[in-house]
C-alpha cells in the first residue's frame, strides 16, 4: 500500500470516532438568531480545543465578544507561513418548528448512515472532516512545507460580524494563507451518467433595498381625503412581480454545460428555453441555471400603517437583491429607476450586504482538488464545474484578503444533495460524506504542502 493510501485508510480505521465527534458537535446548540446575545460559539470552540489537545495540536480561542469565540488551530510547517486554511463555522441557524423533525434537532441521531440534526451538514460535517484530517497529519508526523491552519468561526449565519469579518479586520495575518477550502461547493450533481463535482469559485452579491412609499393620511371612514400608500405599494409589487431581468450567460460556468449533457450553446436568447427543457428531470440544475443567468429582486418584508382606522401615510418595503459578479450598484440603481418610473412617491436606498466575489477557476490548487478527489473516490467518470453560489459564505472575507478560496466539501459521490436539507427540517449529513471529505482534506494538504 502506498503511503498516501495508508493515510487514507487510517481515516476508515477511526470510523466510529468520526461519528462520535460529529455527534458531539451537533449536540452543542450553537444557534445564531442574529440578535445578541446569541451563538454561544465559545462552547463549541472549547470542545474542539480539548479534542485537539488530546492529539497534541495547539489551538487558540479568540472571542470577538464574550461567548462568541472563533477557534484557530495550527500545524506548523518548515517555514512559518500559512500554506492552507481549512475553513468552517460553528454557529447554526435556528430551528423553525422542532415538532416537525423526525428526531429532536440537537440529538444527533445516527440512522441509515446519516447523522440528523441542525448543523449536521452546515457546517459541522465539514468541520469534523477537517479536524480528522488535522489529526491524521499530526499523528503521522507529516513534515509540511508551510503551516496548515484550521479556522472554525462564529456568526457565519448572520453575516460574520463576530466571526471571519471580525478576524479579517483584527487579526488578518492569522487567517491569510496561500489557499483556503470552505463550505459552498464540493457536492455532487448527477447528469447523464456522470458524477459532477461542483467547485465553489464565487458568490453572487447581496444587496438590500429599502423602499419608502409615501401617501397622505386621512380618517379611514373618508379615505378619499387622503392618499393610501398601500395602493402605490400594490403597483410597486405588480411591477416587481412582472420584472424581466436581462439574461446573462457570461459566467465561466456556462462554458461547462456540455459536461451536464446540455448540448445547445447558451446565449441570452435561448437560456430560458434550455432551463425549461431540463426543469422536469433536473430541478436543482434548472434552478441553478436560472439563478446564475440573472439578477433577482425579491420583495421580502413590508411594514407600515399606524392604526386600523387611518389611511396609511408611509409603507416600507424591503427587497433582497442578488447580483452577478459584474453587476454593479449603479446597474441595480438603473434597473430600479426604470422599474419605478412615474411613481414619484417611491424612494429607495440600497445597502451592500455582501459584494459579489470570486477566485480564479484555473489554479494549481483546483487541479489538486480534482486530482485528490479522483484518487479518493476511485471513479473515472468524474467531472467538475465551477459554480457561483446564490448565497454567501465567509469566503468573501478571505477572498477580500487575497486568499484564493474554494467551496469544496468533498461529498461522497453517492450522497444525494436533495436530502441534506441545509437550514430546513431534518437536516442531516451522510457519514460517508464526512469520511470522504476528511480524506479529500487530508489528501489536499499532503499534495499541496508535503509533496
Ligand atoms: Zn454554512
Report what the structure shows.
The protein is α+β, with helices and mostly antiparallel strands and 451 residues long. It folds into two domains: 3-201 and 358-449, Aminopeptidase (3-Layer(aba) Sandwich), CATH 3.40.630.10; 202-354, Alpha-Beta Plaits. It is 33% helix and 24% strand. The longest helix has 19 residues, at 431-449. Zinc ion binds at residues 89, 122-123, 156, 183.
Shape: globular
Ions, cofactors and other bound molecules: zinc ion
What order do the helices and strands follow? Answer: HHHEEEEEHEHHEEEEHHHEEHEEHEHEEH
Uncertain spans: none
Strand order of the largest sheet: 1-2-6-3-7-16
**How many domains?**
2
Q: Which value, in Å, is the CA radius of gyration?
A: 24 Å
What oligomeric state do the depicted chains represent?
A: single chain
How helix-rich are the residues, as a percent range? 25-40%
Q: Which architecture of the largest domain per CATH? A: 3-Layer(aba) Sandwich
CATH homologous superfamily grouping of the largest domain: Zn peptidases
**Alpha-beta content class:** alpha+beta
Strand content: 15-25%
CATH topology of the largest domain: Aminopeptidase
Mean pLDDT: 95
Q: Please tally the helical runs, counting DSSP H or I stretches of 4 or more residues.
A: 13
**CATH class division of the largest domain:** Alpha Beta
Quantity of strands, as a count: 17
Beginning-to-end CA distance, first to last residue: 17 Å
* Biggest pleated sheet: 6 strands, mixed
